[in-house]
Amino acid sequence: MSTSHRPLADGDTAGTPDPGAGGASPYRISRAAVVLIAIALGLGLLIGRASVKTDDSGNAPQPSPGATRSSSIVPIGPHSLSETGALCAQQVGKHQLELAVEVRNNSSGPVIFKHMSVQLPNGGFKVLDRSTGTCGELQPPKLEDFGLAPQGTIWLNVLLRTTVGCPATYPVHFTMFVQDQTGQKQKIDVAGFKDLNNVPWSGC
């Protein structure tokens, strides 16, 4: 019996096996190879990303332990307020003595005066008033909550009542209670007068 032959259509090739015929299919082999290649590429991408992340984390700057936010404010210290060396003294009436000492703010921020204490010898003196301003200055600024700028100077003034005939041998020291702009408080001793030998006094 003769077998009829189907003419080849465009795109057909001679000897192309029938997909329905037995044996391994070349299309199945190609798909398996594609799957393996895709898996290999995926693994390669994952490994590459992991290595990049590791490199970035290794090069990134690490914060130092205990690091805090920087600040330009330097807290006040025991030497933030110091004498300039200028002093003044004058007798007021018969029984009052006015003393003043000039001080400078050596800190990097403003110093706020809260209170002034005066160390006096036992007996013979009584504090009548505390203020800023040099001797004889009229209406000086109020001492409490007065702000002194960095490197600024101000006079600290005290008015005393004395009952001694000659106060020449007595020392008078000033202590300032101040605060900086961060709220930190500090007690600062100011030398003041070692003695009152150079103070004009009618009883001496």
Give a short synopsis of this structure.
With 204 residues, the protein is α+β, with helices and mostly antiparallel strands. It contains 1 helix and 8 strands, in the order αββββββββ.
Topology:
Elements: H1 26-59, E1 81-92, E2 96-105, E3 111-119, E4 125-132, E5 146-148, E6 153-162, E7 172-179, E8 185-193
Antiparallel strand pairs: 1-2, 2-6, 3-5, 3-7, 4-6, 7-8
Fraction of residues in H or I helices: 10-25%
Q: Give the strand order of the largest sheet, numbering strands 1, 2, ... along the chain.
A: 1-2-6-4
Major β-sheet profile? 4 strands, antiparallel
Overall 3D shape: rod-shaped
Average pLDDT, rounded to a whole number, is 73
Number of strands: 8
Low-confidence stretches: 1-22, 50-58, 63-73
Q: Rounded to an integer, what's the Rg over CA atoms?
A: 47 Å
Give the count of helical stretches.
Answer: 1
Strand content: 25-35%
N to C succession of SSEs: HEEEEEEEE
**Could you tell me how far the N terminus lies from the C terminus, measured between alpha carbons in angstroms?**
160 Å
Structural class: alpha+beta
Descriptive report:
With 204 residues, this protein is α+β, with helices and mostly antiparallel strands. Helices cover 17% and strands 34% of the residues. It contains one helix and eight strands; from the N terminus they run αββββββββ. It has one helix at residues 26-59, and strands spanning 81-92, 96-105, 111-119, 125-132, 146-148, 153-162, 172-179, 185-193. Strands 1-2-6-4 form a four-stranded antiparallel beta sheet, with no helix packed on it. It has a four-stranded antiparallel beta sheet with strand order 5-3-7-8, with no helix packed on it. The model is unreliable at 1-22, 50-58 and 63-73 (pLDDT under 50).
